[in-house]
Write a structure and sequence with these properties.
By secondary structure, this protein is mainly α. It has helices spanning about 5-20, 35-45, 50-55, 60-65, 75-85, 85-95. The protein has a domain at about 35-95: 434 Repressor (Amino-terminal Domain), CATH 1.10.260.40.
Length: about 100
């Protein structure tokens, strides 16, 4: 591995530890709100039913998120973030058999 790349990776790892320990604020955050959930789903071109089925979310839960009655957190927020950032590969990963 290139020394410069290794140094950048080590710096990033150190910064990540500082963020997790509360010694540094993240440079950016992504909050999953009802508007974002709807935007993510609509960007896939899927109905609520198809989106929920594909990503193993109940339709009721998805509707609650989109209507602001509930907010996704933990793994659900992580999944939605992954879908937003790279829907093609998330779909492929979920549809792979192994």
């Amino acid at each position: 591995m290139d020394d410069k790349l290794f140094a950048e990776l080590m710096k990033s790892a150190s910064q990540a530890v500082e963020i997790v320990s509360g010694d540094r604020k993240p440079s950016r955050t992504f909050e999953v709100t009802s508007d974002i959930v709807r935007e993510i789903r609509e960007s896939t071109g899927l109905s609520q039913e198809r989106f929920a089925g594909l990503f193993h979310i109940s339709v009721g839960t998805l509707r609650n998120w989109e209507q602001g009655r509930r907010r996704p957190d933990g793994p659900a927020a992580a999944l939605l973030t992954a879908i937003k950032n790279d829907p093609k590969h998330v779909v492929a990963a979920l549809n792979s058999s192994g």
